[in-house]
């Protein structure tokens, strides 16, 4: 029960950070907090956290941001599945190499989100769509350390 509570607190904190308002000039630099937490838990506990939870959290992010329902669910499921397939290999990488992989996965997220938004006429083509992927990749080592210490303190296995 304690493990579920700690797990839910980290996800709620990520959802709160995702909903935090930013000035218009910093919108492109917002990291993908929910995806960052999902990726950590999929790598740390691949048999407990997976595609189903990623789909549900994607729906929550869609409701939170007021976007097209299912848009984030689709990308989160793709990324959680990819991360779940490669979790053993990812654990062997250094943190900066994991950060590059996270940057690549979040770039896929950004690209699919852009395609969906562009299809419905809401997006304009720009390379700034990849800036959240870069920021998320740079934040990966520190978020990994924080989440791992939380997992170890509460002995979540």
From TrEMBL:
<dbReference type="InterPro" id="IPR026034">
    <property type="entry name" value="MreD_proteobac"/>
</dbReference>
<feature type="transmembrane region" description="Helical">
    <location>
        <begin position="128"/>
        <end position="147"/>
    </location>
</feature>
<keyword id="KW-0133">Cell shape</keyword>
<keyword id="KW-0472">Membrane</keyword>
<keyword id="KW-0812">Transmembrane</keyword>
<comment type="function">
    <text>Involved in formation of the rod shape of the cell. May also contribute to regulation of formation of penicillin-binding proteins.</text>
</comment>
<dbReference type="Pfam" id="PF04093">
    <property type="entry name" value="MreD"/>
</dbReference>
<feature type="transmembrane region" description="Helical">
    <location>
        <begin position="99"/>
        <end position="116"/>
    </location>
</feature>
<dbReference type="InterPro" id="IPR007227">
    <property type="entry name" value="Cell_shape_determining_MreD"/>
</dbReference>
<keyword id="KW-1003">Cell membrane</keyword>
<dbReference type="GO" id="GO:0008360">
    <property type="term" value="P:regulation of cell shape"/>
</dbReference>
<keyword id="KW-0997">Cell inner membrane</keyword>
<protein>
    <recommendedName>
        <fullName>Rod shape-determining protein MreD</fullName>
    </recommendedName>
</protein>
<dbReference type="GO" id="GO:0005886">
    <property type="term" value="C:plasma membrane"/>
</dbReference>
<keyword id="KW-1133">Transmembrane helix</keyword>
<comment type="similarity">
    <text>Belongs to the MreD family.</text>
</comment>
<feature type="transmembrane region" description="Helical">
    <location>
        <begin position="35"/>
        <end position="61"/>
    </location>
</feature>
